[in-house]
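TL;DR need structure tokens for one chain.
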Amino acid sequence: MEKVSETSSLIAANKVAGTKVFNPHGEHVGEVRDVMIDKVSGKVAYAVMSFGGFLGIGEDYRPLPWSLLKYDRSLGGYVVDLSKTDLEKAPAYPADAPAQWGDPNFESRLNDHYGVGPYWM
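>> reply
TL;DR here they are.
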């Protein structure tokens, strides 16, 4: 039996990784590297987006609240209504270091920066 990993409205988490992220002008700003899912609710909380660098060198990760991403079928990726400056100033961590998940200050900085409430509310 063939494994279905995508329908018109659902996608497997392993297929989200690598999906391109664009700004509203259609410019490529990064790629989804991972998604963070709340264990209890099952709700996707954050998309971890690669940002900057060249061919993976100098790249770091910007967690984005999932609520900010909108899928655009014509682009085949997610669109975030954020400027390059917004992304440059966003909380980040190096690609070769662990994120501070579980640290309430880290998640507070994320939510404050993007002007969204916590994903669990």
